[in-house]
Amino acid sequence: MNSDTHIVSSFDRDLESVQAMIMKMGGLVEEALSNAARAMETRDDELAQQVRENDRAIDTLEEQVNAECARVIALRSPIAADLRTVLTVIKISASLERSGDFAKNLAKRSTVLSQMAPIPGAAIAIRRMAKTVELLLKDALDAYIQRDAALAAEVRQRDAEVDQMYNALFREFLTHMMEDPRNITACMHLHFIAKNIERVGDHATTIAEQVIYLVTGSMPEEGRIKGDETSYIGVE
Amino acid sequence: MNSDTHIVSSFDRDLESVQAMIMKMGGLVEEALSNAARAMETRDDELAQQVRENDRAIDTLEEQVNAECARVIALRSPIAADLRTVLTVIKISASLERSGDFAKNLAKRSTVLSQMAPIPGAAIAIRRMAKTVELLLKDALDAYIQRDAALAAEVRQRDAEVDQMYNALFREFLTHMMEDPRNITACMHLHFIAKNIERVGDHATTIAEQVIYLVTGSMPEEGRIKGDETSYIGVE
């Protein structure tokens, strides 16, 4: 019993540095999303540039997480729950890295949008959507740290709100494009921005599902209907 | 020496079933892409529906790969190159699963597009792009099976062609939208289809990079400039 406890806590210690990297990655991704959306709203090209440069730090952290996880596996030969934890960490860091890429792409497009006539209400709507996704990501990582399957399940449900926001924006941008062809290029960028933020929401959901897998040992059932319905939008 | 060979081949045998699953996944993803693009060109809703249904088989294979890799790690406690192989397999199957999702989305949008006036030349261009990406994916997986770093490096370079095709299509669809607002909804779907195929190309590149990592022990340098320049496209 005592030796069991010792092994577990020793393994947890081995993973401490990885957990710290994951939390740091999460913080950087939330910041990148927030700053990219703010740069877009305030047309601040310097801030957008900064977001793009900071993405490298997120990429580097993912590489470090992968290297450290490989080191821990080689060192400890974990099995069962411990092994599951390490494999989960690798997947979570991949989701965070992809989310960072999406924030970087938002920042790129924000620089282009700042040279075009603004689409009324777009920047505020995008920022609200980004804010919702930031919180989702934060809660998904909190669920991971606290091994809180209930919070993870809540994150999965809340991603539906993001999908609804996206569906509404998709229709709105389409309307702007049809009303005035001069809006088309700007709205194309806004479409891709909204889609990318929606994808970060999907990654928060993926992280939440990993947490549920970690805690319960099995992946959640397909409880939530996929909310991006825009693939089906037909002739208006 | 003899015992070394024995250990290696025993580990390879453990991975045989996983390798078979990866090849099966790759075949299913190539088929899904090909059929989705064909369904779009021939406006064949039944074929599109079939692509959507077949995606579940790809998802199931990814779960099986993950489970089998965890089993092999627990059983063999692999280190160094063997461990690297297992972790690579997990990442490759994740890339294939995502690629399958993109093919499924193409099939969904193809069903919607079949109800709209066709955009001249679009279906053929999309199918050509899909074909190029299928070959890229095939070569990336061949590089993996043969541990061929040179072929993997070639895949990375060839992904630039896909990016060029995407950039050209992006501009073309934008022109159609501006010329006639009745094209806007169809072109929006075409934009997302082209982007999704381009993303499958990125996954082929990711697989190629994993192969290079597997063979050489380090990730390739940033040798290739990111080719999707459409984030920067400004006022026409």
Folded structure, characterized:
2 copies of one chain form a homodimer. The longest helix of chain A is centred in the first third of the chain and has 41 residues, at 2-42. In chain A, helix 1 runs parallel beside helix 3 (80-113), helix 1 runs antiparallel to helix 4 (122-145) and helix 4 (122-145) runs antiparallel to helix 5. The radius of gyration of chain A is 20 Å and the shape is globular. Residues 1-8 of chain A have low confidence and may be disordered. The first copy, chain A, has 6 helices and no strands. The first copy, chain A, has one domain: Methane Monooxygenase Hydroxylase, Chain G, domain 1, CATH 1.20.58. The first copy, chain A, is mostly helical and 236 residues long.
Q: How are the SSEs ordered, and which strands pair?
A:
The structure is a homodimer of 236-residue chains.
Chain A: H1 2-42, H2 45-76, H3 80-113, H4 122-145, H5 149-179, H6 184-216
Helix pairs in contact in A: 1-2, 1-3, 1-4, 2-3, 3-6, 4-5, 4-6, 5-6
